[in-house]
Amino acid sequence: MEPYKPSLDWAGEIPHSLLWAAKAWAITAVVAVIVLMLLTRYTTWGRQFWRVTGDYFRGRSSLRVWAWLGVLLFSTLIAVRLNVLLSYQSNDLYSSLQVAFEGAGGGDQAVRDSGVHGFWMAILTFALIATVYVSRELIDIYLTQRFIIRWRVWLTDRLSADWVDQESFYRGRFLDHPIDNPDQRIQLDIDAFTACTGTGPNTPTAGTTTTLLFGAINAMVSVVAFTPILWNLSGQLSFFGVTVEHALFWIALIYVFATTVVAFWIGRPLIRFSFRNELTNAAFRYALVRMRDAAESISFYRGEGAEKSILRTRFAAIISNYRGYVARTLALLGWNQSINQIINPLPLAIQAPRLFAGQITFGDVTQSATAFFNVHDSLSFFRAVYDSFAAYRATIIRLEGLVDSNERARALPRLHAEESPDGSIELRDLEVRNPDGEVLLHGLNLRLEPGNSLVITGPSGCGRTTLLRSIARLWPYSSGTMLRPDGDGDAMFLSQVPYLPLGDLRAVLSYPSRECTIDDDELRAALDAVSLGHLCGRLNEAPDWSKELSPGEQQRIAFARVLLQKPSVIFLDESTSAIDEGQEFSIYRLLRTRLPNSIIVSVTHRGTVKQHHEHHLQLRGDGTWELDRTAEPVES
To answer: pTM value?
Structure first.
């Protein structure tokens, strides 16, 4: 009967563990970078991931990002080392108890005392390790959250700007296959993407091991760390007369490999189900938001029945997909749970005969079980998170689809624009077509000098508004050349339904400028000029102005913006349709008085608008047009 001996030299374990972590960090960092480079180069989802966020990890500004990742990697490795130490502490705890019991039973006081002393030292060791464990976890969560937040801020800014750049958010509708719900992709999918867990948006308790990247690193390093322990504690096992050395280790490897292959086969459709789940839910949510925004019109039409039918149809698509999603998820979950339960008693059953024969201690049994489950669970990591990876890959696909859509939208053709040297606006050989290729306007040549005005009329569907879209360089089905002041800049387009941004009235009036760039006195003067003086005291209020103001008031807000911005060219698309004729007359006279050198182009169906313009362009709808003789057509 031998006295108790600890499994490790705990007195020198701190420098030894730090050295282990440093070596493991260097090796793991190199291997991880190589693996990530290969994934981004040779896998579809890796290339998609890099296309979405690759710029965050490139250039001088990325040095801080990589340093932060290095710290998170070190934290992950410390977690692995602490788990290894806990396995040795558990060995010491149960081995000391066994020695104490054997010493007491055999009447050997010295052996008994060594076991008792070892037990209390194991308890003290546990207290120290547990303190470090909890501290590391809290610090790890804080550092992980800081990294995720910074990454999300950067990516949201990048994709929002990419969506807005060169009117991609508008021109994307002209693509052959426009994407759905870019708003959800920017808000929800970026959150899930930067959380990198595959389980949805970020949560405040997410640390490194909950992410797919560091979870995989933790699993692989745990395999390396616990394999020597399992290898040394594994004994022989005979199968049908064949003796296998280190049987527990080989059982873990073979078992995990076989079950993982089956799990991947079961879980493969989850990628498609996850993508469809996001798509159908977004479509249903969009229908609800659209119904809320158009509540008054729907109520006037008594369209509740039609809206119910639309909502039921879209919700049915969610349920139809979700049934398959649930069935496949249950199949994967059932498989994983079953094989996890089957494996639970295995290490104890294999090691028990060796314990009964006195070949190993009870602490060795518990440590070998701990090592077995760590190796098993680590090797099973990819099987266990396959559903999370499927959801994360669907998120990557959606964000890469947004990036691709923005790129293709910017590549769509647009009217060629040049700067006019004398402040005039000139159209040369302008042709406008509809998406089917039918010509709406052919060979238009026109020149307007500063201070000129033009009214555009024609039957419905002739292309009046489309002509303005072409001049604004939004319509991709036009060709020709346009000269205008400042090339692509100094013009304002007023639509029939003005856009009123979120914010206080000051922001609404200042749009598209920032709200702090225009003095309040100027804002009040503009409101007075368009007969909205009763709003002068509400500059700081921020209701939903699109619902607060009547259509006529909204159109007058748009004209107040014109007075504040003082553009060289003003395009008006049915911009006085909700204003009575008296106010319409006053507003056009106001424009001519305040902005005498501005060019005014109006699209209208109201005969009262014509009197405010010098020139008249009539579109016939078959590609031909007629310009009155007071205008100056440009010879092509």
So the answer is: 0.80
